[in-house]
Amino acid sequence: MDQNSKVSRDRVIREMKRTLRNDMREKRDNESKIIRTEWDRQITKRFMTSKFYLQSNYLLCYANFGSEVDTQRIIQRALTDGKKVYAPKIIDSDYMEFYKITKLSDLSISSYGIPEPNESEVYFDPEKLDQENAIACMVIPGLAFDKKMHRMGYGKGYYDKYLNWQIEASKDPLCDLLFKVALCYDFQMMNQVPVTNDDFKMDCIMTESATYLPS
After folding, report:
1. How far apart are CA 178 and CA 162, in angstroms?
2. Cα 53 from Cα 178, distance rounded (Å)
3. Best exposed site among 53, 57, 91, 163 by fewest CB in 10 Å?
4. Could you tell me the CATH number of the domain that includes residue 73?
5. What is the pLDDT of residues 71-96, one digit of tens each?
């Protein structure tokens, strides 16, 4: 593929993503909160009984915002179970870091309107996974997914950039120690999600009715 063709293809993919993001965000926002609360309960149960949660020593988990799948019970359960829990924080609108929390009240609403931890010296270091013979589970939000484990996020690329950065910095194969689990609702599963080479695949996607794994 020549450079002009690549640029044209990337432009088409970006436009497809923009349209799909708007449509999926609107659909999710318009869903009944009562129904979503029941779906959240089912997803939470599915996740907390999965091997990804049960076998992990570290939990890196987003704090839900707006109509995202609620993660408060997941975070609280992990803290109660004695797991090391970290939540993401956007730094200078450019990149994301995970900081340790010991209680839900460690989260506060940021200027973006998102619950985030306070910036501290206790950030997630993937090198500790190998040192401690530990496993981490990263719980990731998104707007659309497919059965090939593709994820379409919100357009800023925070999770993809973070994972690329950690993999490049890690001395050991991080993919063997950190599992990427996405939570979403059934209607967010698509036949095919537009992706680029920079988009990470998930290790697992969970909805209220199903668990999807790589085929």
Report:
1. 13
2. 11
3. 91
4. 3.40.50.10420
5. 999 999 999 999 999 999 998 888 89
pLDDT tens-digit series, residues 51-75: 999 999 999 999 999 999 999 999 9
The C-alpha angle 143, 26, 113, rounded to 5 degrees, equals: 70
**What does the alpha-carbon distance between residue 215 and residue 212 come to, in Å, rounded to a whole number?**
9
- CA 18, 175, 107 angle in degrees (round to 5)? 65
- Its pTM stands at 0.92
Q: How many domains does the chain have?
A: 1
Burial of 161 (0-12, 13-18, 19+ CB in 10 A): middle
Structure token digits, residue 115: 């619950």
Tell me the one-letter amino acid at 34: I
Q: What whole-number distance in Å separates Cα of residue 123 and Cα of residue 98?
A: 6
Q: Which of 114, 82, 113, 117 is nearest to 101 (CA)?
A: 117
Domain with 26 in it = 3-212
